[in-house]
Amino acid sequence: MARNSSSYLFTSESVSEGHPDKVCDQISDAVLDLFLKADPYSRVACETLTTTNRIVLAGEVRGPASLVSKSGKVNKKKIEEVARATVKKIGYEQEGFHWKTAKVDVLLHGQSADIAVGVDAAGNKDEGAGDQGIMFGYACDETPELMPAPIQLSHNILKLMADARHSGKEPLLGPDAKSQVTLLYKNGKPTGATAIVVSTQHAAKDKKGRELESGDIKRIVRPYVLKALPKGWMCDDEHFYVNPTGRFVIGGPDGDAGLTGRKIIVDTYGGAAPHGGGAFSGKDPTKVDRSAAYAARYLAKNVVAAGLASRCLIQLSYAIGVAHPLSVYVSTFGTGKADEAKISKVLQELVSLSPRGIREHLKLNRPIYARTAAYGHFGRKPEKDGGFSWEKTDLVKDLKSAFNVK
Is 109 a catalytic residue? Predict the structure, then answer.
């Protein structure tokens, strides 16, 4: 995010759980949870495609005999059940996409032996990274969640709307929705919204049989936007756009095909920080695309929570089959109260950043991933069963001690 002017606008978007790409992310992560629940050391790389009344799953897996045989054949029945249950939970019971009637093709197969030998631990060799790549983590003090405000507010708007839809309070809203928030920054701090966009799928008619118009949807959506924003941050009505095309009845995979991994900026920081390029969903925690990105966020968040900086970016890099990161880069954008090289050194002393070290420290070998696949992987509350463990700030005490911060 540019910081070279005292006043600027910055925008981020989010998409709901019913967006076609997010449907795919949730199915892929539900399959991952299925495997991890049966065997915490399962290996999963699951991609999902959705279109009109069709769900296709592909990729490679390794796990218990109940899910995949030694010859590589998967239990298609159980995987199909998980896919259908995910779509049902989201709320799709439409003619063009229905959890019960959609055709499900399960094309998953056993993991490649060539990949397995490169990343498995053997003899004196520790478990290696599942691929090469770069991963980023970021935190800032713009929100209580230590997230950039535009993406956090975009998520919050859609989550409030989804909760109202699921509760039955807003039966006219459909599962597919998008939001976009533009904030005015002054002296590097967000001060309010200058434009807000919400597009949401809706019923064709109300209970009385009257055709719904964009003005009707705007009246439904407005209270949830106001609730999501800090007091006094709402933009003027001229720049509050709801269903700008005027009609959004056909939505979800029936309106547009979905694929796993196409919403990586929505999943992370809304463009306010770099992204290494790798998607998260459908990948078990030995894949550093996922686990190292979680670790980088964990470290960056603890740096900011400890008061060492108001903004922190961390980059990690890996080589396939190699256990330890090739580099650990820290930037505090001139807001730091300690030397960045020393911060990097201390963080590496506190947490092992090998794939195994990350997985064990954050306890990632658990079925906790389907819940991450909508409304962001970051800025969430740590959960009692280990969900969102990377959002904990349990390194703060050690960091303050290392740098004599009170």
Answer: no
pLDDT, tens digit (0-9, with 9 covering 90-100), for 241-296? 999 988 899 999 999 999 999 999 999 999 999 999 899 999 999 999 999 999 99
DSSP string, 33-86: HHHHHH-TT-EEEEEEEEETTEEEEEEEEE--TTTB-TTS-B-HHHHHHHHHHH
Cα(257)–Cα(255) distance, integer angstroms: 7
Q: CA-to-CA distance for 338 and 405, rounded, in angstroms?
A: 10
Closest CA to 200 of 180, 229, 230: 180
Known active-site residue 257: yes
Selecting among 25, 29, 33, 60, the annotated active-site residue is 60
Catalytic residue list contains 208: no
**Among this protein's residues, is 10 annotated catalytic?**
no
* C-alpha–C-alpha distance, residues 340 and 344, integer Å: 6
Q: Is 287 a catalytic residue?
A: yes
To the query of whether residue 283 is one of the catalytic residues in this protein, the response is yes
Decide if 95 is catalytic. no
The answer to whether 19 is a known catalytic residue is yes
pLDDT in the model for residue 321: 84
Residue 123 pLDDT: 45
Contact of 53 with 102, CB cutoff 8 Å? yes
Predicted local distance difference test score (pLDDT) of residue 138: 98
Q: Could you identify the residue written with the tokens 């807003």?
A: 170
- Considering 120, 141, 256, 398, which one is annotated as catalytic? 256
- 25 annotated active-site: no
Residue 406: its pLDDT value, please?
79
Would the pTM of this model clear 0.85, i.e. be above it?
A: yes
CB atoms < 10 A from the CB of 344, how many? 17
Q: Which residues are within 8 A (CB) of 6 and not within 5 positions of it... i.e. 6 or more apart? A: 186, 187
Asked if 259 contacts 21 with a C-beta cutoff of 8 angstroms, the reply is yes
Q: Which residue in 263, 297, 301, 361 is the catalytic one?
A: 263
With H, G, I as helix, E, B as strand and everything else as coil, classify residue 4.
coil
Active site residue 102: no
Catalytic residue among 10, 13, 17, 22: 22
Residues lower than pLDDT 70 in the chain: 1-5, 113-126, 128
